[in-house]
Amino acid sequence: MRASDVGRLLALAVIWSASFAFIRVLAPPLGPVWTATLRVLIAGIALVGWLAATGVDGDLRRHWRAYLLVGLVNSAAPFLLFSWAALTLPASYLVILNAASPMFTAIVAAAWLGERLSGAKIAGLAVGAAGVALVSRAGPIEPTAAVAGAIAASLAAALCYALAGVWLKRHGAELKPKAIAGWSQLGAGAVLLPVAAATPLPGPVSASVVANLLALALLCSGVAYLLYYRLIRDVGPTRAMTVTFLMPALGMLWGALFLGETVNATMLAGAALVIGGTVAVLRPSRAAPQPGPGR
Prior knowledge:
single chain; mainly alpha; about 80% helix; about 0% strand; globular
């Protein structure tokens, strides 16, 4: 990769790994529903405005159902699940559990598209699952029913990314990546807004909350999508997905620096297992779908 590509990859890892710290800050004052809803609406409006300004035609009349479906599965559902989990789990947990999405993609692709799961990929899945179990059972927070539910929600969110990625591999050939980024966010907003309208805010919204929300929406769901799709165009989807390897370490760093979270040796070992399993799963044997973007 060129130096500019490496720079984009590192910037994407920094932005996406920070999203979990923003979610952790926003979920208590806004609640999970409003955190997810405002994130996608602000990002969607900004991205669609950018599409209009740059002349990108997403053929909305023809593809609106696809954008709505991708928005539901790749943004609305996982953002809501991670926001709910953030009420219980530290940001460092969330970013480690999110790293399971490429492993889920391999499983979904095998079941849906008939992609072959080689012995190395199966071993990678087992290693990654061991890493998730290690973090879940031996991290710095007490294993309770609430923690188990939040972990399950986080893994369900990672599964959503996998489902969206495989669906796009099978049905998204006619969709422009930049148009997917913008219109799917608005589609997610259309799904979540009626739920949010019936959900009261837990508390007052401060200037700090607004600043964190804008950073989450405009950086983590706006700029990040543009970086991601530029990487896919320039270096291909497999290399672009190596951002997954960088996110756990950075996410734990942001949690420790800005939220005062504890990162212990067990978490580092679990993260290493998840990353190692992901490397084995992503090692190309033949063409495989990539997980959908969105963190």
